[in-house]
């Protein structure tokens, strides 16, 4: 199954932003595609990874959304083969219990993941944030109507964060964070030394009343520390306060 959105052009001469959806659940393909088109995106949909791979490489969209569990070629294999030739931004859709797959997918190069069932508002926010980070001239990000109004540049000791570009450095070295990791770090770094509970961090990263358990926040923090330690083995700025939450130490 494949459906391609019209190659339309928005006002001002900008090509419309194209999102590819890869999922064997026809209801999800239909629902998400309609929601994205209502927001001004073009969509292309594929029912399995095998059908999607060639099209994603030969005629790349601006961003792709993959389900992990699919017939013929699952999302993990699709991402692995895509990453051999392309840096196309990818969001994974996962079931709530797929923490191992989530970690493997992020390590293979997925930009973020969202657990099913998910809120369309959350998905749209993640899409816009990743499009901002990936750069390019996306028309839907040029209008205040669709802008998430990213905050000002944040500098805390050796940490530099630019929300408008979704750019993070530590001691001048770039650190590639997913959107969720970026939002968690921004919440911590905004008030150094202040303990943020897991519930407060959930609210910062999942602003649409989406249920997230403590384990998910802990997993994001663990992966984020690992990324910072890849550029600074002594990184210890994110502190765990057992039973209370986390804090950012800029010293």
Automatic annotation (TrEMBL):
> Among its keywords, does the record have Transferase?
no
Give the organism the record lists.
Qipengyuania flava
**Predominant localisation class:** cytoplasm
Please give the InterPro entries that the UniProt record associates with this protein: CheY-like_superfamily, OmpR/PhoB-type_DNA-bd, Sig_transdc_resp-reg_C-effctor, Sig_transdc_resp-reg_receiver, WalR-like, WH-like_DNA-bd_sf
| Protein name, UniProt field | DNA-binding response regulator
The GO terms this record gives for MF are:
phosphorelay response regulator activity; transcription cis-regulatory region binding
Entries under CDD domains matching the protein: REC_OmpR_ChvI-like, trans_reg_C
The subcellular localization recorded is: Cytoplasm
The protein's UniProt keywords, in alphabetical order, are:
Cytoplasm, DNA-binding, Phosphoprotein, Transcription, Transcription regulation, Two-component regulatory system
**GO CC list:** cytosol; protein-DNA complex
A single Gene Ontology biological process assigned to it is: positive regulation of DNA-templated transcription
